[in-house]
Design goal:
Layout (H helix, E strand, L loop, with lengths): L1 H19 L11 H10 L2 H25 L15 E2 L4 E4 L1 H13 L3 E5 L1 H26 L11 H8 L2 H12 L1 H17 L4 H5 L6 E5 L9 E2 L6 H12 L9 H15 L5 E3 L1 H13 L5 E4 L4 E3 L7 H16 L5 H27 L1 H4 L2 H31 L16 H9 L2 H16 L7 H19 L5 H19 L11 H33 L5 H7 L5 H9 L1 H21 L3 H10 L27 H21 L4 H9 L7 H14 L20 H17 L6 H17 L10 H18 L7 H9 L12 H4 L1
């Protein structure tokens, strides 16, 4: 018996050790990952939560109205104490819906640019004058004369800057009638198609569609803004005519010099002007073509809103409405109130949904996010209702406090401070307005509008205060420091009309405001922890915790894959600076960057950064098997992220940092092996592509680019600023042409800032040192081994 118990204990200890090392998955009573994925995949939980929001808010308002026993009789000049909807049928046109449809139709139309013939002719004259100046300079230098450029002529000044090798090449080119004629024809074709200005192109989104209007009002085919000529791309195209491939290799410095000169001759403004009139006309025509669809409503026309001033005409309207109701079948007052509140709740829910759909569509399209927002609303409504009941019970038991101070006891900012750190300020603002409006209907009628307005102010400012909190202590203190003074100051006017001891009421109001602030902060902190666990959300506080280098996964990465660990640190440095440069979330980018390559823990020896001192593991493998091993680090990383309960940001970084990019090195190697061996089996590109999604937001796009740039820069032999810039430019161009950035919602101007940030940071990282004499001797004895000497370049091994 004792032997059996000892064996059971030893097996338990062995399994515990395997779980600690991550070899086997820990057993959980509740699989929160499966729960969160089920919520995210199925719309049923989101629909259920939304229905519950509707039902709970309607029931709470009805219970509050029945408890307060409001008299429906109103007199002229007073504020309406509840909202009433008519019971007649009518047809109406939803103008807001119609405006949205027309706006969408307008946005689907392309922007129009018109070719400026004056600037087109100026570009042609510039090139003609430039080549004439080149020929003049060649003749004068041949005659031993100094060439003096015309200071008022740009082509003449540029001709004076041409280096001798290029000058000689251009002189030969000018003598070739056929080649020079082809160049002029190509230049005229580009000018006729239009050259967009650099600033105009940078200001457009990546997916913006453009139509060019040429001479004679002929409209060219619609194209993406990235497919239009600009001064740089047009200059590069013209360089192909001056230095054709059949001419042989041309020094890159010579080609770059000509491209620079050609770009200056074209000018940054190009020859395309944005045609606002045509664009507006086309879009107005598209909007006018959207038909207005009438909606038939049986019941629910708004006759009076809560807080409106009762006028004679409004009173007559209500009187007729009540008389019509008396003719109808009598129903229980509770059911009538419930029906009324359900309609009002539905209107507010639809309004909030429209707001979120237009300003935050990514939230509306995610079932898990809808469920979380709905749950926050339900919890906030229940807490507010409980606070009202508790205060009313306290006032009934003791008349020391005024019933008007109930607004000081309601934690109305709870929903706003929760959602501000989860989804951002705009969602918090919308939900704060919704909760404030619904809670206002639960208090005594004469304080309803007062609470709604003040609740919106408190919710808005509290959400604004906590949205940038990066740790839980700051989050707690910001809530207390915001809610207490706002609640006390905004409700101070309630003390002025009371005929009781002012100082006593003042101290009571201050105590309620302090209690409200601490209750809001405590509940917000507890619920934030709960939502991070159950819904796997990424708040700034959670991301800050992930950025701690003592995280167990980072410790494993440091021990088992040190090269990958230091690569992740460098990528994190790159993305943090770049994200801050374009206004993205640097914490989100840094946390994703630190963990994006944790999948390499499965087989670290197959990645060159981890085996610099050992043989290349891929030498004895065919390219297909190497590609599988390389690509599997994404799948292994997602498995580790699930095992360690990593947040959605980390999982997105793991999945999207390669997107569906091609493993170029092994793909090229497989093609070379097939050509050499002559096999019949086809080499499929799909076998060498990652199976992830392309980056879906700016932070993931930055991580993807930084990952490739940092890895490639480490493969450089004696890195210099020029080499680093060339590597970064090449990677950006390749990712751009492969479509990896099309879904990231990042503009060309932002990409340029990211590129410049990468170059500056990498140059700082790769700066040189003074070669001391001792170091020089050591280098002579044992030369360093570069990552670039490996058979598998780091940029491709990823």
């Amino acid at each position: 018996m004792f032997n059996r118990l000892r064996m059971m204990y030893e097996r338990y200890q062995a399994r515990r050790e395997l779980r600690r090392k991550g070899i086997i998955n820990p057993h959980r009573i509740v699989d929160w990952d499966s729960f969160a994925n089920t919520i995210d995949r199925s719309p049923a939980p989101a629909i259920f939560i939304l229905v519950m929001v509707w039902v709970v808010s309607s029931v709470l308002m009805t219970l509050s109205a029945l408890q307060q026993n409001i008299d429906p009789g109103w007199v002229i000049g007073q504020e309406a104490t509840r909202t009433i909807h008519a019971s007649c049928e009518f047809n109406y046109i939803d103008k807001e819906e119609l405006n949205r449809a027309r706006q969408a139709a307008m946005e689907r139309q392309p922007e129009f640019f018109r070719v400026n013939t004056l600037r087109s002719e100026q570009i042609l004259r510039n090139f003609n004058a430039f080549f004439k100046a080149v020929e003049q300079r060649i003749r004068q230098e041949r005659d031993k004369k100094k060439y003096t450029p015309d200071p008022d002529s740009l082509p003449s000044r540029l001709a004076a800057t041409v280096q001798p090798p290029l000058l000689e090449e251009l002189g030969k080119f000018c003598q070739l009638q056929e080649g020079f004629g082809n160049f002029e024809n190509r230049l005229r074709m580009i000018v006729r198609q239009g050259i967009i200005g650099t600033e105009d192109k940078a200001a457009r989104n990546v997916g913006q569609r453009i139509r060019v209007i040429t001479v004679g009002d002929r409209r060219l085919q619609e194209r993406a803004v990235t497919d239009l000529w600009d001064n740089a791309s047009a200059a590069a195209e013209l360089a192909k005519n001056v230095f054709p491939p059949e001419q042989g290799a041309v020094p890159e410095t010579m080609r770059s010099e000509f491209i620079r000169i050609a770009a200056e001759l074209i000018g940054r403004g190009g020859d395309l002007d944005f045609d606002d009139a045509v664009t507006r006309t086309v879009r107005e025509e598209a909007a006018a073509a959207v038909p207005a669809v009438p909606h038939k409503i049986a019941k629910g026309e708004l006759l009076v809103s809560k807080g409106d001033i009762v006028t004679p005409s409004l009173k007559d309207k209500l009187q007729v409405h009540r008389e019509e109701e008396k003719k109808s079948v009598t129903i229980d007052i509770g059911i009538a109130l419930l029906s009324h509140n359900m309609i009002w709740s539905l209107v507010l829910i639809i309004f909030a949904a429209f707001y979120l759909y237009n300003l935050h569509p990514d939230v509306v399209r995610a079932n898990k996010r809808i469920s979380l927002i709905g749950l926050v609303v339900i919890i906030s409504m229940l807490v507010n209702f409980g606070a009202i009941l508790s205060y009313n019970m306290g006032v009934s038991a003791s008349r020391d406090l005024s019933s008007a101070l109930v607004v000081n006891a309601i934690p109305i900012a709870l929903g706003s401070v929760l959602l501000a750190v989860i989804f951002g300020y705009r969602v918090a603002l919308c939900v704060g307005f919704f909760i404030s409006s619904m809670t206002a209907m639960m208090v005594v009628p004469e304080r309803a509008f007062d609470l709604a307005l003040k609740g919106m102010v408190i919710s808005s400012l509290a959400g604004l205060a906590v949205r940038s909190a990066t740790d839980y202590r700051s989050y707690f203190l910001r809530i207390v420091a915001t809610v207490f003074p706002l609640t006390f100051v905004l409700n101070f006017n309630l003390l002025l009309g009371e005929n009781t001891d002012f100082l006593h009421q003042l101290s009571g109001a201050a105590s309620l405001a302090i209690g409200n602030a601490f209750l809001t902060a405590i509940l917000a902190l507890v619920l934030t922890f709960l939502f991070e666990i159950v819904f796997n959300v990424s708040t700034n506080m959670a991301l800050m915790v992930l950025c701690d280098y003592n995280h167990p996964l980072l410790e494993r990465l440091k021990r088992e894959a040190p090269g990958t660990f230091f690569h992740s640190l460098m990528v994190a440095t790159l993305v943090e600076d770049a994200a801050r440069a374009i206004g993205a979330n640097p914490l989100k980018a840094k946390a994703g960057a630190l963990f994006h390559d944790i999948g390499k823990l499965a087989m670290p020896q197959y990645f060159t950064e981890n085996n610099l001192d050992s043989a290349n593991q891929h030498l004895n493998l065919n390219p297909q098997m190497s590609s599988i091993i390389i690509r599997d680090h994404v799948k292994e990383g997602l498995a580790l992220a699930r095992q360690y309960r990593m947040c959605r940001t980390v999982r997105d970084a793991i999945e999207q940092h390669h997107g569906n990019d091609l493993v170029h090195y092994f793909y090229a190697k497989a093609l070379a092996d097939k050509r050499r061996e002559g096999g019949n089996a086809p080499v499929l590109e799909s076998q060498f592509r990652y199976s992830g999604r392309p980056p879906q937001d700016r932070e993931m796009a930055i991580i993807s680019l930084a990952d490739a740039c940092e890895a490639a820069s480490r493969s450089l032999d004696k890195p210099s600023a020029a080499k680093i810039e060339a590597v970064v430019n090449g990677i950006f161009q390749k990712r751009f042409e492969d479509g990896q950035l099309n879904q990231a919602n990042i503009t060309l101007a932002e990409l340029e800032k990211v590129r410049q940030s990468f170059i500056n940071t990498l140059i700082s990282m790769k700066h040189g040192r003074i070669a001391y004499q001792r170091e020089q001797r050591e280098e002579d004895e044992e030369p360093a081994v570069l990552v670039g000497d490996q058979a598998v370049p780091p940029a491709e091994s990823k």
